[in-house]
Amino acid sequence: PAATLADVTPAEALRHPTWSMGPKITVDSATMMNKALELIEARWLFGVPAGQLEVLVHPQSIVHSLVEFVDGSVIAQLSPPDMRLPIQYALSYPRRLPGPARRLDVAVPLTLDFEPPDPARFPALRLGLEAAERGGTAGAVLNAANEEAVQGFLDGRLRFTDIAEVCAGVLAAHPYRSDPELDELRALDTWARQEVASWASV
C-alpha cells in the first residue's frame, strides 16, 4: 500500500524481484522514476506528444518492446531480464553476436501480465509526464534532482517517499526555460542538485 512506502529502507528498495542492476537504477525502478524518464525520452526520440504516452507495469520483465502494425499484428522483443543483453547490443549494434545472456525457454509455461500503475504509489510518473509536456529545462532538472534524491535516500538522509516529493518541489521551483542553451542546462543541473542537498540536510 502507498501508505507504507515512507518506511521502505534502502535494503528493501534494492531487492528487485527480476533485475540485477546497480543501486541507483534499482531505486529508480522501485519509484518508477525510470519510467518517468523514459516518458521524456520517448517524447523526444520518437516525436510522440506527451498526451499519447502511457505506462504499463509488466511484472515479469520479459517483454522489452512491442510494435503494432497497421493491420493490428504485433511483434514483440522478449528475453529474460538480463542487462548484459542490451549492453552487448548497444556495443555491437547493428550486429547480433553470441553472448552470455540467459536464453528464453519457451517450453516452460510463460505468463505475461500488463497492468496500469497506481498513481498514488508512483507519483514520479506524473513528474515524468509533466516534464515531457513542458520540454525545455524540465527534463534536465528532474533528472538531476532525482539523481541527488536517490543518493540522499541511499545515504539515509531522505525517506523513500521523499524522492518524488523533493523532485516535485525542485521541478516546480526551478527557473524554467523553454529553449535553453547548453550552458543554461549545465547551470540548472548544478542548481537542482544543490536544491536537493538543501532539502536533504533539513
Examine the coordinates and then state which fold CATH places here, giving the name of the CATH topology of the largest domain: Rna Polymerase Sigma Factor, Chain: A
Let me know the CATH homologous superfamily of the largest domain. Answer: RNA polymerase sigma factor, region 2, helix turn helix motif
Low-confidence stretches: none
Tell me the number of structural domains.
Answer: 2
Number of helices: 8
CA-based gyration radius = 18 Å
Q: Report the sheet with the most strands, covering strand number, pairing sense and barrel closure.
A: 2 strands, antiparallel
Second CATH tier, the architecture of the largest domain: Orthogonal Bundle
Task: Enumerate the strands of the largest sheet in spatial order, edge to edge or round the barrel.
Answer: 1-2
How would you describe the shape? globular
Query: Average pLDDT value?
Result: 92
How many strand segments?
A: 2
Distance between the termini: 27 Å
Write down the secondary-structure element order: HHHEEHHHHH
**What proportion of the residues is helical, as a percent range?**
40-55%
Q: Assign the structural class, choosing from mainly alpha, mainly beta, alpha/beta, alpha+beta, or little secondary structure.
A: mainly alpha
**Strand residue percentage:** 5-15%
CATH class of the largest domain: Mainly Alpha
In brief:
The chain is mainly alpha-helical.
Task: Give structural attributes.
202 residues, mainly alpha, Rna Polymerase Sigma Factor, Chain: A, 2 domains, globular
Task: Please describe what this structure looks like.
It is a single chain. It contains eight helices and two strands. The chain has a two-stranded antiparallel sheet with strand order 1-2. It is globular and about 55 Å long. The model has no long low-confidence stretch (mean pLDDT 92). The protein has two domains: 2-55 and 119-200, RNA polymerase sigma factor, region 2, helix turn helix motif (Rna Polymerase Sigma Factor, Chain: A), CATH 1.10.1740.10; 58-114, no CATH class. 47% of the residues lie in helices and 5% in strands.
